[in-house]
């Protein structure tokens, strides 16, 4: 293709044979799926063998960026990782920021497809057309910060990378993939997939800047984007405190569950107020090409961790390592957060696993002997720090928790499942589904399990673009579908979701940016872009259907959320009305209400006729 | 001067007025003192106000490199820091490696003289002719690794720096100055001097390569040097394990005191054998321009610190954090070592302070309440890690130990001084003076206190260049003077002492390198170079005399070394015969035996007539 916006190449890597082959990006793929998450869905659909063990060499790990990555467009240099998840058994997409995405583009690739398993630990060194499988035995076993020094020294000081730590090597089911600047593709166990392939890191460097189709149009669109960001009412708050601006607010709004979802109240929650948190900020920083600069560095001047300099935990981690464990000690949360980054652990799942263990001990389901003699208590920072380490290194009780709460509950037995807060095996994030029904519906139906970023409901949570009653069940199928498709559309373009969810960016502006950058006529039409979003979402669903984890029976939600009413205002007495919500949702989706399966009609409407045929052959189309 | 070898500039910095002025390097200074440690002695003699409080703005911190720094000559890019020490009250020289020394040269300076005190924390950004006093309030409080990210991002990714951590800021009396690559000018409290000046770091970048006077001669001399290194019998061992090659060997030879010098035996000492230590090595690395590559990185694959990646402790730290505390847990020693590097603490003094505290508690001199309820025990890794932190942050008992063992003993009283193993306030390193008399004599008479690197006696310890009975007192004055002057000579040229002490480099080769690089005729003569060594040594002594800490009564050694015989072979029954050794030494030095003061005759012989006159006016010349 006459390549604008895109790098124009896909790199196919086979670790078993140590072969890497670059192929031209098919124009048709670009048109049909835009890029990034879109490419991931299509490549996995095409390449993932049905029923594959996620930790076998046959699992496929797809790393992608969008057509705007590495350009002047704002917030568009995210890198996406798609794979079959060892945590959920479903299709998975994990995503992160920093500079690695832009660098992949500069190295000359829109997507990297990794298959096979190296005989011994390796890292992949991608230097434009030169691809090397480098021995990684000397860094196998090291944390991300330890590996960092080797990787950059051995390649290029200005290279960027995505690596795993000891957690990924030890196949912790929720091991993360961590970039050189500690941005993580955290969820779903991509780190374990890399670990299972003996792939310690992917390092990239290049100087190939993407060509822009229409420079003048593009410049204007970017100016409009920057203007739109600056006049957005959430811009200032995002800049000042990042996602932490929302911790206290979401607590007040009743979205912030505590003590493993038992409660919605938290002692000393004042410590999460913006005016307290801002005292810890040492530095603002941004991902490649983003004026929001939501990244924060953190300075501790008192207490046992004084002097240590760490990434500031995000909203989610202040919840998973904080509120959900009854902990409000910011220093300990921050320290544990950074340990998790360096070991390469998803903080949401790790925190949920710790909350699960504490509640099991509290309920008398597990004995002190089973938890290595630890005194598991709510609100104890030492428990947090110790269990993060034990999970990452699979020590003692950590070896069980490293399986994720779903499997850990199966191992423990004795009714432990009741306290395992997950959907499809993915631990719940910091939003109580009972307090936001469309948001909860997105979680319940999500193709990757309980991810807060696959359908974050701005209508309900922040009232953007218009306020909707979060407790009502009316029209929530439509709202859930809307944000799921919108998210898929923007992520197919490689966009960060913060500007999307805060209303800084519209489909109209997305269209301008995409067309000006790529010159692809179809991208001029926002209806087409929405169609791609829905197409991507349905194709991801189809992968789950093919894998046998894509029916109504998989769209579950923990019993506690279904049966225990919220004990306090503002969501007092709310439960989650799963069945009613699902009926509405499947109908709006054009899927079969009884089975939750996509219909031939819907798939054909989305240009996925072949997909429909494949599912039909498998007996997985509704009759 | 027609500038060869040297950068040709001295930078005078006044932090109080935020003025920096560069002056041409006087040729006479270069000829008379060569550079590096030589420049430090001369500049301190000239500029240090008599009787200054080491932590006041009037203390002078001199940072220097030698004329071979940044050239192809091997092991010659050390950076030296001279100041009046807050730990000892004496003149002090502290020294380190890495790349910072070469970069100072590339930035265009042979020496930097820092005076005054900034009103608020600053760092100095030296970019060739551009000198900036940059606000450092955002990194004040951070560890060295935390600061690193800011300093390099805010200046130049390829810049190099020397910085302090929380220990220096808190004026811990043995706070270190740490480079970007964690090489430290550890001893004597240079970090506290920087802290007292509100100077967080000195960052340098430049592209000015030193000019060589005679390229062909120089190339040949460097070739000869590399050849000499390679054929040296210690080269291989240094390369394989660095200074750790000697841990077990020196233990066997009886130089390795244990349990605060109470014993000379250590349980599980096998863990320090080269064949065990080499299993931890993940990487060899070198300072600028050195084929020895004695630097090691360390990988822990088991235990509580698994996955963490740290600098390998040197010989001294395996002693101070290991043998001297009864600890042989390599993982804990390594972890504590790196904590110390990141907090900016001298590991020798910190370990000695911990040993002192443990023995006081063991002897019942301090109570559990006074040590924050800790159970201080020999051989307990947790005690080590906890006390390193407490000292660095001046918490509880750490606040007293942070004063160094001499002052801590005064604070405690109750006879604690008996267990404070120091000379002139500087904690003893890993050599038992009783087992090597000339080496011990160097320690006792050293101008900076008990430093192992100011007169390391290769004759006694390794038998280089010829073996001398270490227990005999015969001829030890001469041997002590020889290594002290030799050390001063090589350090005036900016040399690392490892090649000197292992016999890889001779004065003859030094002379060739210096002359070829600088074209200074005097440097052709090795006798002249030896004279400079003695001159530097005597000038440093004169500074101490002027400060009132340079007489025989200051050349003391701990009572335990004087009175308690070594309990085990090979040095069984040895004590340290201080007075006999001192008499011999002063005589050989041409100093007054009764007072230990340098004579006018000796000073004049060394070209230090003005120095003699000054001391005379102060009544500090022997009558």
Automatic annotation (TrEMBL), chains A, B:
Organism: Candidatus Methanodesulfokora washburnensis
Source taxonomy: Archaea, Thermoproteota, Candidatus Korarchaeia, Candidatus Korarchaeia incertae sedis, Candidatus Methanodesulfokora
Xref: SUPFAM superfamilies: Aldehyde ferredoxin oxidoreductase, C-terminal domains (SSF48310), Aldehyde ferredoxin oxidoreductase, N-terminal domain (SSF56228)
InterPro entries: Ald_Fedxn_OxRdtase_dom2 (IPR013984), Ald_Fedxn_OxRdtase_dom3 (IPR013985), Ald_Fedxn_OxRdtase_N (IPR013983), Ald_Fedxn_OxRdtase_N_sf (IPR036503), OxRdtase_Ald_Fedxn_C (IPR001203), Tungsten_al_ferr_oxy-like_C (IPR036021), W-dependent_AOR (IPR051919)
Protein name stated in the entry: Aldehyde ferredoxin oxidoreductase
Molecular function via GO: 4 iron, 4 sulfur cluster binding; electron transfer activity; metal ion binding; oxidoreductase activity, acting on the aldehyde or oxo group of donors, iron-sulfur protein as acceptor
Family the UniProt entry places it in: Belongs to the AOR/FOR family.
UniProt keyword list: 4Fe-4S, Iron, Iron-sulfur, Metal-binding, Oxidoreductase
Top-level division of the source organism's lineage: Archaea
Entry keyword annotation includes 4Fe-4S: yes
PANTHER family: ALDEHYDE FERREDOXIN OXIDOREDUCTASE, TUNGSTEN-CONTAINING ALDEHYDE FERREDOXIN OXIDOREDUCTASE
Domain Aldehyde ferredoxin oxidoreductase N-terminal: from-to ranges: 6-208
One Pfam family it belongs to: AFOR_C
Cofactor: [4Fe-4S] cluster; tungstopterin
